[in-house]
Amino acid sequence: MTWMCYRFSELSSLQLYDVLQLRAAIFVVEQDCAYQDIDGLDMHPDTRHILHYSTKGELLAYLRILAAGVSYPDVAIGRVVTATSARGQGLGHQLLERGISAAKSVWPDQDLYLSAQAHLQRYYQRYEFATVTAEYLEDGIPHVGMRWQASAEHLKSS
């Protein structure tokens, strides 16, 4: 299995197709949520894309990381998705760990933010994200804003 971290300009056309296909399959079709997934933020020069392929070449997991100020004041993790065929194998945990690690590597000392589906709060809390907003609807699905504080990481390593 292969993990990759790319900027938009480094993605091949096949990889981009795989990403868009996986996001549409899960966020639009499975979650029955019509929204504008292709939002222009994928192409931002600072955006990072984490992809995980099976040995057979199937994209199994993906997330994107946006630089601070692109969408939120903090560095933002979003579009976190695992293919239906790969669920229940711990891949989501590996994906999030790699996403946090990549964000910390590129933007050390920066807080991380994500807009989490409300039912996944406990999942993200395992990674020290704290809920920082009241519940709100995003594309018809209850969400909460969650933040991981870089300063808390520094306190732990002291």
Give a summary of the structure in a few sentences.
This protein is α+β, with helices and mostly antiparallel strands and 158 residues long. The chain has a single domain (2-157), classed as Gcn5-related N-acetyltransferase (GNAT) (Aminopeptidase, 3-Layer(aba) Sandwich), CATH 3.40.630. Helices cover 30% and strands 29% of the residues.
CATH superfamily: Gcn5-related N-acetyltransferase (GNAT)
User: Helical amount among residues, as a percent range?
Assistant: 25-40%
- The tally of helices reads 4
Quickly give the CATH architecture. 3-Layer(aba) Sandwich
User: Which oligomeric state applies?
Assistant: single chain
Topology, number of strands:
8
Shape: globular
- Our measurement of the CA-to-CA distance between the termini, rounded to an integer number of angstroms, reads 35 Å
> What value does the average pLDDT take?
93
Largest sheet descriptor: 8 strands, mixed
- Give, in order, the helices and strands: EHEEEHEHEEEH
Report the C-alpha radius of gyration, rounded: 15 Å
Strand composition percent: 25-35%
The residue ranges in which pLDDT falls below 50 over 5 or more consecutive positions are: none
CATH topology call = Aminopeptidase
Helix and strand composition category? alpha+beta
**Whole-number count of domains:** 1
The CATH top-level class label: Alpha Beta
